[in-house]
Amino acid sequence: MKKILLLSAFCATIAFGGTDVIPVENRTFAQSKFMPDISLVMDASYVNRSIADDEVAHLEVPGVAHGLLGSHSHGGNTHTPYNAKNGFNINYAELVLSSSVDPFFTMDGVFHFSEDAVEIEELYFTSTALGYGARVKAGKFNSNFGYLNEQHHHSWDFADMPLVYESFLGMHGINETGLQLQWIAPTDTYLMIGAEILQGENTQMFGKDKIGDYTTQADAPALFVGYIKTSFDIDDTTILAGLSYAQGTSRIDHSGDEEPHVFSGDSKLYGADLVVKHYFDSYSFLKWQSEVLYRDMDGTQFNLNPADTTAVLTSPTVTKKQAGLYTQLVYGINKSWHTGIRYDTIFQNDVTSNGIDVDKGNNFNKYSAMVEYHTSEFARFRLQYNRNSALYDEDGNRQDIDTIIFQANISIGAHGAHSF
Amino acid sequence: MRLLLLLLPLTLFAHMNIAVSYPYIGAITKSIGGEHIKTVVLARGNWDPHFVVPRPSLISKMRNADALIMNGGQLEIGWMPALLRRAGNPKTNIGSESFLNLSHHVKLINKPTTVDRAGGDIHPDGNPHFHLDPQNIIVLAQTIRDFLISIDSDHADVYKNNYEKFSASWQDKMLKWAEKMSAKKGMKVIQFHNNLAYFNKAYGLDNIGTIEPLPGIPPSSRHIIKTIKLIKDKEPCCILHDVYHSTKTAEFIREKTGIKIVLMPHDIGALQTIEDLTSLFDYLTGAVQ
Fold it and tell me: Can you list the residues of chain A whose pLDDT is less than 70?
């Protein structure tokens, strides 16, 4: 008996330990053929900014957003945007696993490793067998609101997010847990209608959690998104246009800020996007991409005592009607070289407090230019210049910030299929 | 009920809508399927088959398809998965009855012994440009005949008949092409990307080098110098150049060596005069001088 045990242990060692002894297909319980597609993307940068890191964290787009460029913390979470530090930054390693589950679903997991944390960026399953142009996705995912929101950072044409997106929605955009239903019309022209029911955990604009004793917990799910997109081709030019809408409760915690406050209310976000891409040949193209976002927030702002943030000083009714856009033009010269320019602005900033207009300014602009070199489909090096004239210091003085970003984006493993 | 009756005839007489990735597949499928099918070609014949723009209009085409025939061998890896996912059409899902991957039915050559991206953007299953061997066209036509019968057995006789006709006339043409090419056996050629591997094999042409140093990697000056030396040493007849890469590098090499550049269409529509499979091979067999 002992001998048999020893023998089987020995066989097992051969079968599973000595890999080249028995070919994969002959190993009885070997499962390596079921390995999902795996890829790893790294994003790193060298940044040279005309302002020190500790100063940049205090800057704000008045009435719209705080601390867009540097690390800052609120609600107990520290947020480090990409390219936050002068000098070298390792922005993330993105691990993607995806595979069919069975004849009815696929599953995708996108894990974001930063230097000291791991986040589930996306984790969802998608139906493949419903037919009739219908598709259901469930889990955590990037909402298909607008054009840019669904794409991962490494497929953007610029190293940073457009001002209006980052100010309104934060660096992850609408990235939520919930349910998505999309339907493609049975027409020759592409027409897609989608709806999403989401938990509502965006810290910049939405949210449902009770903050302090003065706000209430909102019912979950708290965020609803809908959109319609259409596309058609004119010869070698493709036009993609979409309208999007998001509505949800807002519980925004800025109790850790220098002027501590908490906002509780309801918010609506409207978006329109237009992409026009013309192809000269297989590798050379001109792409014009623009999005306009408009938001309407209505609620109560609880201004807290900086010395004791449990004490509410004032609680005015606040409304915010704000709008911004970005428009960018990218020229793909050939397979290796791309170059582009972008203009960002927030052009409307109507804030009222107890019905009285509060002048926070409405002239926030950012200009960017970039050139990138691809050594292959799997490696891209980008040099980007930004002039940011949207940030103000505590005394209300505008700071013009120049930034140079040299970004390296490298991927290994499974070949990613490009979306339009 | 009346509405149903109105709709019924439409579905009865509707053509099967077959999405195919490349024009050559559309041509074979149309030859076999005849009036019972409608083919929807996703990629254009004059652009790089590896880099098809996944335009949203293609999602609609995929969504409305009753079947999908693809080339396979990872030629569509950079664009088709995204379309399949968005379309969510169970009829075009990989592994469904109405899905056909042609590469599983032909023998691929140039299968790399080591698979590593340091060797460029290689196809681990072998060279996927197999339709440029005219003998493979017969194999593909057979495969498509069997596929159409399996999804539409009612018209099995039609598909069998159409195949017989197609195959007979193709065999005749192959004799003609073989005759045309017989004098060119052993001729040395240079290419940009090795997409004529099957054509060269069929007619005994010897590909001695490519202008791109490795698959998918743009030409470097070091490699261009090497290629110029190779041309001077081995004296190949010509550069067989695809229509979608820029001929700039090839023209530079011509200036230095005097070598001829011959544009070689890879698919229907690659050049304006290439309107069907016959004219594609007529052109290819006539171009090599």
Answer: 1-21, 24-25, 70-79
* A374-414 residue pLDDT tens: 998 899 999 999 999 999 988 889 999 999 999 999 999 98
Nearest chain B residue to A128 by CA: give it.
Answer: B88
Angle between helices B221-234 and B248-257 (to 10 degrees): 40
Distances from the Cα of B284 to the Cα of A135, A390, B24, B26, B288, angstroms? 44, 60, 14, 19, 7
Q: Which residues pair with A83 in a beta bridge?
A: none
Average pLDDT score, chain B: 91
The answer to whether residue B36 is domain-embedded is yes
Residue in A closest to B81 by C-alpha: A417
Question: Which residue in the set A134, A191, A378 is minimally distant from B88, CB to CB?
Answer: A134
**Alpha-carbon span B67 to B97, nearest angstrom:** 8
Per-residue pLDDT at A212: 85
Structural domain total, chain B: 2
Name every residue in B having a CB less than 8 A away from some CB of A: 47-48, 51, 53-57, 59-61, 63-64, 74, 77-82, 85-91, 93-95, 117, 120-121, 216-218, 244, 246
* Residue B12 banded pLDDT, cuts 50, 70, 90: very low
Number of structural domains found in chain A: 1
Give the pLDDT confidence of A186-231 residue by residue, as tens digits: 999 999 999 999 999 998 999 999 988 888 899 989 999 999 999 9
Look at A419 and B82 and tell me if their CB atoms are within 8 Å: yes
In total, the C-beta contacts within 8 angstroms joining chain A to chain B are 109
Range 175-194 of A in CB contact (< 8 A) with B:
182, 184-192
The whole-number pLDDT of residue B9 equals 43
In a domain, B4, yes or no: no
For chain B, give me the number of helices (H) and strands (E)? 10, 8
Interface contact flag, A377 B216, Cβ < 8 Å: yes
ipTM: 0.88
How far is residue A145 from each of residues A195, A246, A329, A376, B211, measured CA to CA in Å? 9, 8, 21, 31, 44
- Does residue B227 fall inside a structural domain? yes
Tell me the two tokens of residue A90: 């390792």
Give the residue numbers spanning the domain of A124: 38-413
Among residues B151, B173, B195, the one where a domain terminates is: B173
Same domain, B137 and B53: yes
Select from A399, A389, A385 the least CA-distant residue to A365.
A389
Residue of B nearest to A278 (CA): B53
Contact A210, A216 (CB under 8 A): yes
Query: Structural domain of residue B283, as residue ranges?
Result: 181-287
Task: Quote the pLDDT of residue A78.
Answer: 60
How many CB atoms within 10 Å of residue A408?
A: 14
Q: Is A411 on the interface with B (CB under 8 A)?
A: no
Distance from C-alpha of A319 to C-alpha of A329, rounded to nearest angstrom: 34
**What's the helix, strand, coil split of chain B in %, to 5?**
50, 10, 35
